[in-house]
Design brief:
Mean pLDDT: 80
Strand order of the largest sheet: 5-6-7-8-9
Number of strands: 9
Radius of gyration: 33 Å
Number of helices: 5
Helix content: 40-55%
Structural class: alpha+beta
Length: 174
Amino acid sequence: MNCKNLSLIAGLLLAGCSSQADKIAQCEAQGISRDACYLAEQNKRATINAAAEKQALENAAKQYAQRAHKTSCKDLRNFHAQGLQLTPQQVKEYEACAPTSEHTLAVKPRTWSGFDVTVARHADGLVYVDGKPAALDESTKQAQVYSQGLYQVVIYKNGKANLIDNRVIKGWLK
């Protein structure tokens, strides 16, 4: 008895479903050619897919508009220092950024060396480790931390610099 009930329920559930072949057969039964039925079915599916894609793009555009944000001046300066290409919008934002003490230091250019590493701070305030530009990671009242590869350099306001190699403090640079 259970098998009969189960097969009856399964039959009722699948009665509303029809495959593409069933739809074409129904179309042919009405006297329409197989090619015309196939094209009509494909057009119907394409229309449904196009509407779904259009709605998805509209939803994505709304979400992007809500999340669109201005790139920070600090990030723009780092991008510029690393030689990365800026978008036209980022170029406008970069030009609007006024120099800050975080970027333009109030000290003269200086070079430190030690542990087979040379650290140079140029007149424009950018720091280079072995000739490669370093990114500003952190800036506080006492110091600024720059990183380049596995190296981190802590430059203190008093002019001293400390080298960290792969998260291990190597010591003071001279």
